[in-house]
Amino acid sequence: MNERLKNLITKEPSAWLEKAKWNQENRDWLEKSAKIAIKILREIRAQKEKNGMSQKKLAEILFVSPQYINKIVKGQENFSLETICKIEKVLGISLIEIPLFQVSQEFDVDLQYTGSGLSRNKAQKIASHVGDYSVYASFEYQELDKRA
């Protein structure tokens, strides 16, 4: 057998199957983490000339180790929302977008809007179905105007 090949062979079993299973089980957050990592790396690169931003400087500002930042930018860290918010603040970027929504305040009124026959429940269902809560918000404003 080739000497080079003999040097590569070990008696210890490989852990590739366990790693593959782990990657499969954690695929969702790993993909999101990788996308966040790309945004962070792009912003660090963009800010390098302006303010000397680097992974090391980011680590210093956040009071974490450079190794931790390295894990983040490799997309291998399942970090908290708190950490995400801190990174967003330091870099001045948004890493996670949350769709705008409005919280409806419940009023003790007749649920039927007499002008259109649209109930609050139905307006809410329509809004959630089309993903546009402005429909529901519009209904709520009409209800407020009606009571004023």
UniProtKB/TrEMBL annotation:
InterPro entries: Cro/C1-type_HTH, Lambda_DNA-bd_dom_sf. This is Helix-turn-helix motif. One of its GO terms (molecular function) is DNA binding. Pfam families: HTH_3. Residues 44-98 form the HTH cro/C1-type domain. SMART domains: HTH_XRE (SM00530). The lineage of its organism: Bacteria, Pseudomonadati, Bacteroidota, Bacteroidia, Marinilabiliales.
